[in-house]
Amino acid sequence: MKPVEYDVMATVETHHWWYKALRQFLIRSVTKIGFEPRGKTVIDAGCGTGGCYQAFVERFPDVTYVAMDLEARALEYCRTRGSRSLVRATVHHIPVRRESADLVICFDVLPCTSVSPRLAVREFHAALRFGGFLILNVPAFNILRGQHDAAVGIQRRFRRRQACSILTEAGFTVVTATYWNMILFPPMA
Questions:
Q1: Which of 56, 76, 93, 183 has the highest Cβ tally under 10 A?
Q2: Rounded to whole angstroms, how far apart are CA atoms 11 and 9?
Q3: C-beta of residue 85 within 8 angstroms of C-beta of residue 67
């Protein structure tokens, strides 16, 4: 992602409809799977500027939330939003003890140019304790590719079947796979 895009994201993340919807998706997903975060460890792999961190700890304050990103600028924004557990790393090598996390969150990182989705998903699986969860968001439908994709380094978009295949190859059991914002498809297309 172009470094300037982190500045843009940090500026609009609190009020832009997309980021609000993404945070609502996160909280709904955690609630839907019955995950009780109290006392648990959460890794946000590709935390961006920290909007999900703020929403998550506001709703679930008794959690160890590890914000991880490759970009130092993103981590600095996370720090200003209150995150104290910051890790500069790639999703290809998550520097935590194996089977130490209860939940991994990864939003819009797998489609990036520099990321191997299969390698990243295997790392997520290895980081999770038995019974842990992955909440993943990836852009769908190539017909929706646009200027924003180029600006933030999105190289690929996924169909549900393709994403599920990558997950099951890594050892995950897919609980739910949906085009969660499908209502927006007609106007965006």
A1: 56
A2: 5
A3: yes
Give the Cβ contact number of residue 162 at 10 Å: 14
Question: For residues 112 and 155, is the Cβ–Cβ distance under 8 A?
Answer: yes
Paired with 142 in beta bridges are none
- Gap between the Cα atoms of 147 and 168, Å rounded: 31
Is the pTM here over 0.70, yes or no?
Answer: yes
Task: Name 177's Cβ contacts closer than 8 Å, sequence gap at least 6.
Answer: 160, 163, 164
Pairing of strands 128-137, 41-45: unpaired
Q: What is the pLDDT along the chain (189 residues), one digit of tens a residue?
A: 767 777 877 888 899 887 898 899 899 999 999 999 899 999 999 999 999 999 999 999 999 999 999 999 999 999 999 999 999 999 999 999 999 999 999 998 877 778 799 999 999 999 999 999 999 987 765 555 566 555 555 666 667 798 889 999 999 998 877 766 655 545 444
- The length of the chain, given as a count of residues: 189
Report yes or no: 163 and 176 within 8 Å, Cβ to Cβ: no
Residue 42 near residue 102 (C-beta atoms within 8 A):
yes
DSSP-based helix, strand, coil % in the chain, nearest 5? 45, 20, 40
